[in-house]
Amino acid sequence: MQALVLDGINQVIQLREVSTPQPGPGEVQVQLHAAALNHRDVWIQKGQYAGLKFPIIVGSDGAGIVTALGEGVNEDLRNQEVLINPGHNWGDKPAAQGRDFAILGLPHDGTFAEYVCVPAHYVQPKPAHLSFEQAAALPLGGVTAYRAMFTRAALQAGERVLINGIGGGVALLALQMALVAGAEVWVTSGSEDKIEKAVAIGAKGGISYKTEKWAAALSKQAGGGFDVIVDSAGGPGFGDLLDAAAPGARIVFYGATNGDVPNVALRKVFWKQLSLLGSTMGTEQDFKEMVRFVEQHQLVPVIDQTFPLAEGEKALRRMDDSLQCGKLILSIKN
After folding, report:
1. What's 206's DSSP letter?
2. What is the C-alpha to C-alpha distance for residues 62 and 113, in angstroms, rounded to an integer?
3. pTM (2 decimals)?
4. I need a surface site. Which of 16, 127, 184, 328 has the fewest CB within 10 A?
5. Which of helix, strand or coil describes residue 310?
6. CB neighbour class for 238 (10 Å; exposed up to 12, middle 13-18, buried from 19)
7. Which residue intervals define the domain Enoyl reductase (ER) in the entry (predicted)?
8. pLDDT tens-digit map of 128-184
9. Strand 14-17 and strand 27-36: pairing?
10. Which structural domains are found in the chain, ordered by start?
């Protein structure tokens, strides 16, 4: 089969002929029609991720058709259109993943290929209203957004939500999910174009986080502070989120793109009775509930651009430069 193979840190990802994987006991082989990029793929390429091994076929998100079954797998799965849950071996504690938790695409070969094999219980029926490209955009970003917004922050209808740094796949899915859940959503970005696109989707408004004292300005514009704040940046700007938070707010963060948070004003946390919530991916139950939620509300992930598999390196560079507004997709089989 053809696959995009990464041979080492800071190496160009290359399209190559490799052996087609065959399903072992309890596994299915999925012929991938589409895959989607995540920042994780860029970080692996740059060597900024734990447990690196090379060569590796990266890629965590994929959708396709089950083409072969391993021993013990229900025959009903054959020829089914599916999307893949990339979070494996969560463990028996729903509150947090266990030591054996792993994400597809490292340490095991991932979805930037014509075929991939995964345990059968990690595939879910593809929502019928989604194309393969749209379905491929959903798994990692969708479960991350769903767990952050509902399992961790317990979002309620009528609450005011702030999504800090709109434009990435998780942030846009969080926006869409919050809107159909009945929340009022506001956004920040360093790009006015991305703010405008978020407003077109349904956000009430937004502001550039480059604006001086943006938290106070946006809170005034919104008519008050925010009940739920979703962030993936961290870094020095995290303190602004404490200013934007309403009393009793929940701030949930699923990444730290800008690094650790220096000099947190703890007095603001305790005086406002804030909850700071970390979130990573989601349980198998979170994933199933996310897929049902998407089907129930007929949500369609926002796609920025679609590339042929051979142009995977070009897609990675677009993500690395933060040019995308929505998911970047690799079309594998038309």
Report:
1. E
2. 9
3. 0.95
4. 16
5. helix
6. buried
7. 8-330
8. 999 999 999 999 999 999 999 999 999 999 999 999 999 889 999 999 999 999 999
9. unpaired
10. 2-138+301-331 (3.90.180.10), 143-278 (3.40.50.720)
